[in-house]
Design goal:
The chain has 564 residues and is α/β, with parallel strands linked by helices. It contains 18 helices and 26 strands. It folds into 3 domains: 166 residues, Rossmann fold (3-Layer(aba) Sandwich), CATH 3.40.50; 219 residues, Rossmann fold, CATH 3.40.50.12780; 102 residues, ANL, C-terminal domain (GMP Synthetase, Chain A, domain 3). 33% of the residues lie in helices and 23% in strands. The strands form 5 sheets. Strands 2-1-11-10-12-13-14-15-16 form a 9-stranded mixed β-sheet, sandwiched between helices. The protein has a 7-stranded mixed β-sheet with strand order 7-6-5-3-4-8-9, sandwiched between helices. Strand 19 and strand 20 form a beta hairpin. The longest helix is centred in the first third of the chain and has 19 residues.
Length: 564
């Protein structure tokens, strides 16, 4: 096929997918002009361009529903403008960096929109931060203004003490907020709503470059790194998602995944691009989430895997009372998903789960569609259109079919670099090194085996925790598990497992060790198994292995001297 033929086919595919998703279609000439003006005054494309474009296309359509009510795309656009003007009036110099510490509600969308229109960098902060970590990130990113929900007041006290020049703008306000200290009161500049009312109808000055979003790496060790995302993600990347996941314009999607996380933020950008109404609640609640889907007739639900698991942990009577006939897709990403919960969800609600494998730095990588998940529930699916994935050995050579290797990725959806000039991402022949290890099956489906830096070397043998965790999780008595390596004088490292049992289940460490030995090689059997009431997780549901207890009461452990 000639280069011209490939370009024609690619263009035809792009138009077909974007039309089906509702991104493009018949539009009045005056609205096309408004769309052009919206792009021009905010300095070009950005991850939040969709808000202004949606307002130009469908100003009166419902954009967002949260606990405070509903807003149209026109409302969101005007409120973003007014907030931007209010922020710009705080100081005589441009605001360079805004940080946002908010749960899922209109305030986080308005803050992101305003930051984009000011040409600022907007840092999305993890709602699970402790005070010292918040203070470190604010200092590291040179934040001028923190937009924050009242519930995080105690954390803000720590951040202000460490960063005296910081100013704070309150987003979601609470009537019973604890009184502010003098330092916090001095930093406080008011509320988002006050700024919007004071500057209603005003427009920020045009900028030459649209603002960028800064997403933080998971930061399981040390202070998280800031990863910039600007306007580099092209429309083909959006089409690649829409070609795999059935988003449609004019429909409603419940966005339960936290917006501060790369996955949740990405769902906001997609919803704006296709003009899908975003349904949000500040805190995830499994029953409340199902009720939102039913109340608004939502066709989409965006979650992180632990949310789907919590839904399926509900009593059967709760699930029986909440069928969801309107739901056409559930899209998940961010961490490993329990396969029993995945299959149970599809058995009950239909084959509508789409599980994606992405990374803050690498962007879009692969998505498993329902037919993939039925065939191989642990798969990450196939690479999206426009994304190239290779598996490399330690010498940089591609591994043979079925082999395990480091996952490297090339696509147009990668990040724009870290905020720290001292930090860079490794590449191999133009492919970004993801830090993950994986394999592919004969059908071309990708499986993520684990993190490269989590590999355990015990007695000279390599073990990835994930394969042991999957065997543990498959036992009917086990709800979830985590496996780590600890130093061992004899073997270099030994495997230690932490397991959470299902309600009323009775199992011993020795029985679990025998179960694992029946499925895996002897050197992959944990030498200790500890039982915990729950695994420590961050705000996005990812297990924090660094927070697992170093010692557990002996009655909960297997014999560390045992040779399985």
């Amino acid at each position: 096929m000639s280069a011209m033929s490939r370009r024609v086919r690619s263009y035809a595919w792009l138009v077909r997918v974007l039309t089906r998703g509702g991104v493009i279609g018949p539009t009045r000439p005056d609205r096309i002009v408004r769309m052009g003006r919206a792009m021009k005054r905010q300095g070009g494309a950005s991850p939040m361009s969709g808000i202004g474009l949606a307002a130009a296309r469908k100003p009166d359509a419902t954009a967002l529903v949260d606990e405070a009510g509903s807003l149209t795309w026109g409302d969101l656009d005007r409120r973003g403008d007014a907030l931007a003007v209010g922020i710009a009036s705080l100081t005589g110099r441009p605001v360079r960096t805004i940080a946002v510490l908010c749960r899922n509600h209109r305030g986080i969308i308005e803050a992101l929109t305003a930051g984009t229109r000011l040409g600022a960098e907007t840092v999305l902060l993890n709602t699970g931060f402790a005070g010292p970590q918040l203070a470190d990130v604010i200092g590291q990113e040179s934040v001028d203004l923190l937009i924050v929900d009242d519930e995080f007041g105690e954390l803000v006290e720590v951040a202000v003490a460490a960063n005296p020049s910081l100013r704070c703008l309150r987003a979601w306000t609470e009537p019973d907020t604890v009184a502010m200290s003098p330092a916090r009161r001095s930093a406080d500049v008011g509320t988002i709503d006050e700024f919007i009312v004071a500057h209603r109808g005003d427009h920020p000055a045009p900028v030459t470059r649209a603002g960028r979003i800064v997403l933080l790496t998971s930061g399981t060790t040390g202070t998280p790194k800031g990863a910039r995302r600007g306007g580099s993600t092209d429309v083909a990347s959006l089409a690649a998602v829409l070609d795999r996941i059935p988003w449609r314009g004019g429909q409603s999607t419940v966005i339960a995944a936290p917006v501060f996380h790369a996955w949740g933020f990405g769902q906001v950008a997609i919803a704006a691009a296709v003009t899908s109404t975003m349904i949000m609640q500040r805190r995830f609640d499994p029953v409340g989430t199902l009720d939102l889907v039913r109340r608004y007739g939502a066709t989409g639900l965006a979650v992180v895997p632990v949310m789907l698991e919590r839904i399926m942990d509900l009593p059967p009577a709760e699930l029986d009372a909440r069928p969801m006939p309107t739901l056409r897709f559930v899209t998940a990403s961010g961490s490993r998903m329990r396969t029993d919960a995945l299959i149970a969800f599809m058995d009950r609600f239909g084959d509508i789960v789409y599980n994606s494998y992405n990374a803050t730095e690498a962007g879009l990588i692969s998505t498993a569609v329902p037919v993939d998940l039925r065939a191989a529930p642990e798969t990450a699916g196939r690479p999206l259109t426009g994304t190239r994935v290779r598996l490399l050995d330690d010498d940089g050579r591609e591994v043979p079919a079925g082999g395990t290797g480091r996952i490297v990725v090339a696509s147009n959806s990668g990040f724009d670099g870290y905020t720290s000039a001292d930090t860079t991402k490794e590449y191999a022949d133009g492919y970004m090194i993801s830090g993950d290890v994986g394999r592919c099956d004969t059908a071309g489906r990708l499986f993520v085996v684990g993190r490269d830096d989590e590999m355990i070397v015990s007695g000279g043998e390599n073990v990835f925790p994930l394969e042991v965790e999957q065997v543990l999780d498959a036992h009917p008595a086990i709800l979830e598990s985590a496996v780590v390596g600890v130093d061992d004088e004899r073997f270099g490292q030994r495997l230690v497992a932490y397991a959470v049992t299902r309600p009323d289940a009775v199992i011993t460490a020795e029985e679990l060790q025998a179960h694992i030995k029946s499925e895996l090689a002897g050197y992959k059997v944990p030498r200790e198994i500890h039982f915990l009431p729950q695994l420590p997780r961050n705000a996005t549901g990812k297990v924090l292995k660094k927070s697992l207890p170093e010692t557990v009461s002996t009655h909960a452990a297997g014999n560390p001297e045992q040779e399985p």
